[in-house]
Design goal:
The chain folds into two domains: about 80-240 and about 415-460, Periplasmic binding protein-like II (D-Maltodextrin-Binding Protein, domain 2, 3-Layer(aba) Sandwich), CATH 3.40.190.10; about 240-410 and about 490-510, D-Maltodextrin-Binding Protein, domain 2 (3-Layer(aba) Sandwich). It is built from 21 helices and 13 strands. The protein is of the alpha/beta class. It is globular and about 75 Å long.
Length: about 525
C-alpha cells in the first residue's frame, strides 16, 4: 500500500508539472503579482497552476455566506470585538497547556518574505519586518504579540523565507523541529497535507471558534481531514477577497441621484444592474473611432471576472458528498452559462486587461479606472494599497448578486493567495503550537482585524465599514482553486476564445478531475 501511495503521488506531481509547463500566467490584480507568481512557479516546481488561470478569483464550494442585504455579517465584523478590553481579550480562549507560562517560551512560525512575493508577503506575524508595512498596522501586530507575551509568557518569532516549501520539507525530513507552525498559501497547505508534512488540525484545534473562518473550514476540508486553517490570524485572506470598486466622480456625473449603498442594502445590487449602468457609461470619448483603452468604460476587468461573478451568485462547480469528498456538480452549470453570456453579450461595456495586452496591461487597466474613465472595477482588496497612490475618489461595495431573489451576497477569496496556518509534523510540541495559534487568532480579532479595517477604509466614506462587513462576512472559497483538480479554467477559456466554451471544456477534463480527486483520497488514507 505504501508503494502504491508513493507512485500515485509521483504521478500526480508529474501531471501538475505538465500543466505548469503549458499554461501562461494571468492575474487580475496588478503586474507585480504576475511576476511574483511566475518566479514562485519556477522555484517551487509545481507552482501556482490555478493562479495562472483564476488569478485572485475563487469561490467556496459549500460554505454558507453570512452577509445579508441589510449589511449584517458574522465572523469578521470588527465592531463585535472593539469593546473588549485588553484584559479580557483572551476570555474566549481555553486553559493553557501544562507548563505554558511557567518559563518564557519562543514560538517560531515559518512565513513568506517580500524577497520574491512583493505583494503577497506576510507582515502580520511579527512587526517591523518591512518598511512598506503601515505603521499603525505594525503597532497592532506588536500589541497582539505583547498581549500574548504578558498573558502566556510566549514570544512570537518569525522565520521569513523566499518560499516556505523547501525549508518546511527539509525540516520534516530532518526532524529538526525548527518551526512550531507555518503560515502559507492555501494551495501550499493542500500540497503539504497530501505529502504528509502537516498534522491534521482537527486533532488539535477547536476549529469552530469565532476567529477561524467557518466557510473555509467547510469548503476546504477533504475526506474528513483538515491540514490548514484560515481566519483572523492573517489579513491575507481579506486582502485577496474580491469586491466591486466604483469611481465616485463617474458615478456622480452619470447617476447623480443613485445611492449604490442603498441599492446594496435593498438587495437590488445585481449583475443586470451593473451591466445596465455600465452600458450607459461606455462611450467613444477619445476622438478616434472604435472603443479602446483610451475611451470611457462601464467596467474594467479581466478574463477571470466571470468566475468571480459566478461565485458572487452563489455558484460552485463542486459539492461535497457524505464522506466530505468534493465531486463535480452539474447543479450550477446553467448559472455559469448565464453569467458568461451576459458578459459576452452584443453591447460593449467591459474592457478586459488581457485585451489591452502588452507588458503594462495591468497598469493600463488600473489607470482607466483611476483617471475617471470607468465606473466600476472588479478587484481584490489588496488593490486599495495601490489605488491610494492615485488621485481617485472611489468607494467599495460587494460583488453583485445574480438577481433580487438571491438571499445573500457572496465574496470570492483567492485560494491561491489566501494565507492559512498549519502545524508541521516535525513540530516539537503540536499541542503547544495549536494553543499559540488559537491565542494569535483570538487576539487578532481584537488588535489586527480592526487595524486592517482602518487601513483599507482610510479616506473613504462612512458607509465603508458596513460594506466591508458584508464583503468579508460572506467569504467563499473554491476547493478547486486550492487543491488544483484540473489545469485550466473553463471560465477563462471562454473569454480567451470570445465564445462560450464552458461546458465542452469542462466535460473534456471531467474524467481527469475525478481521477485526481481519487488520488488525493488515496494519499490522505
Amino acid at each position: 500500500m505504501k508503494n502504491t501511495r508513493i507512485i500515485a503521488f509521483l504521478l500526480m506531481l508529474c501531471m501538475l508539472l505538465a500543466f505548469a509547463a503549458c499554461e501562461s500566467k494571468v492575474n487580475d490584480d496588478d503586474e507585480n503579482a504576475s511576476k511574483e507568481s511566475q518566479v514562485e512557479t519556477s522555484n517551487d516546481g509545481i507552482g501556482s497552476i490555478f493562479d495562472d488561470l483564476f488569478g485572485d478569483d475563487s469561490s467556496d464550494a459549500s460554505g454558507d455566506a453570512s452577509g445579508d442585504a441589510s449589511g449584517d455579517a458574522s465572523g469578521d465584523d470588527s465592531s463585535d470585538v472593539s469593546d473588549v478590553t485588553d484584559e479580557d481579550v483572551f476570555m474566549s480562549l481555553g486553559d493553557a497547556p501544562n507548563g505554558v507560562g511557567d518559563t518564557k517560551k519562543e514560538f517560531t512560525m515559518l512565513i513568506v518574505s517580500n524577497e520574491l512575493q512583493t505583494t503577497y508577503y506576510c507582515d502580520d506575524v511579527v512587526p517591523n519586518l518591512y518598511k512598506e508595512t503601515d505603521a499603525d498596522f505594525d503597532n497592532a501586530v506588536s500589541d497582539r504579540n505583547k498581549a500574548i507575551l504578558e498573558k502566556y509568557n510566549v514570544e512570537i518569532m518569525a522565520y521569513p523565507a523566499e518560499s516556505i516549501l523547501t525549508p518546511l520539507r527539509n525540516d520534516v525530513i530532518s526532524g529538526m523541529g525548527e518551526f512550531d507552525a507555518v503560515m502559507m498559501f492555501a494551495y501550499e497547505g493542500a500540497m503539504l497535507g497530501t505529502e504528509g508534512c502537516l498534522y491534521d488540525l482537527s486533532n488539535f484545534l477547536e476549529l469552530d471558534e469565532a476567529w477561524w473562518d467557518q466557510s473555509a473550514n467547510e469548503a476546504l476540508s477533504f475526506a474528513g481531514h483538515q491540514y490548514f486553517a484560515i481566519g483572523d490570524i492573517s489579513t491575507m485572506p481579506k486582502k485577496v477577497t474580491s469586491a466591486m470598486f466604483f469611481n465616485k466622480t463617474v458615478m456622480s456625473k452619470h447617476f447623480p441621484d443613485f445611492d449604490i449603498y442603498s441599492c446594496v442594502r435593498d438587495s437590488n445590487w445585481t449583475i443586470d444592474k451593473m451591466i445596465e449602468m455600465s452600458i450607459a457609461v461606455t462611450a467613444d470619448t477619445d476622438g478616434v473611432g472604435g472603443l479602446t483603452k483610451d475611451d470611457t468604460w462601464g467596467t474594467v476587468g479581466s478574463y477571470n471576472d466571470s468566475a468571480l461573478l459566478f461565485t458572487a451568485a452563489g455558484g460552485s462547480l463542486f459539492a461535497k458528498d457524505s464522506d466530505d469528498i468534493p465531486r463535480l456538480s452539474t447543479s450550477d452549470l446553467e448559472m455559469a452559462d448565464t453569467i458568461i453570456e451576459k458578459i459576452l453579450g452584443d453591447k460593449q461595456w467591459m474592457i478586459m486587461a488581457q485585451d489591452i495586452g502588452g507588458y503594462d496591461m495591468w497598469t493600463d487597466s488600473l489607470e482607466i479606472f483611476t483617471s475617471d474613465r470607468a465606473l466600476f472595477r472588479i478587484s481584490a482588496m489588496v488593490s486599495t494599497d495601490i489605488i491610494r497612490e492615485y488621485d481617485c475618489d472611489y468607494g467599495i461595495v460587494p460583488l453583485p448578486k445574480l438577481d433580487i431573489n438571491q438571499e445573500d451576497y457572496c465574496s470570492a477569496v483567492s485560494g491561491g493567495y489566501a494565507n492559512c496556518v498549519g502545524i508541521p509534523v516535525s513540530a516539537k510540541d503540536p499541542t503547544f503550537s495549536a494553543f499559540v495559534l488559537n491565542a494569535m487568532g483570538c487576539a487578532a480579532q481584537h488588535y489586527i482585524t480592526p487595524a486592517y479595517y482602518e487601513r483599507i477604509s482610510a479616506g473613504l466614506d462612512e458607509d465603508t465599514y458596513e460594506m466591508l462587513d458584508i464583503v468579508f462576512g460572506s467569504a467563499r472559497y473554491d476547493i478547486n482553486d486550492v487543491y488544483r483538480f484540473a489545469g485550466f479554467s473553463p471560465f477563462f477559456n471562454s473569454f480567451m476564445d470570445k465564445k462560450n466554451t464552458f461546458r465542452s471544456d469542462l466535460e473534456a477534463v471531467a474524467p481527469m478531475i475525478d481521477d485526481t480527486i481519487d488520488e488525493y483520497v488515496e494519499l490522505l488514507g
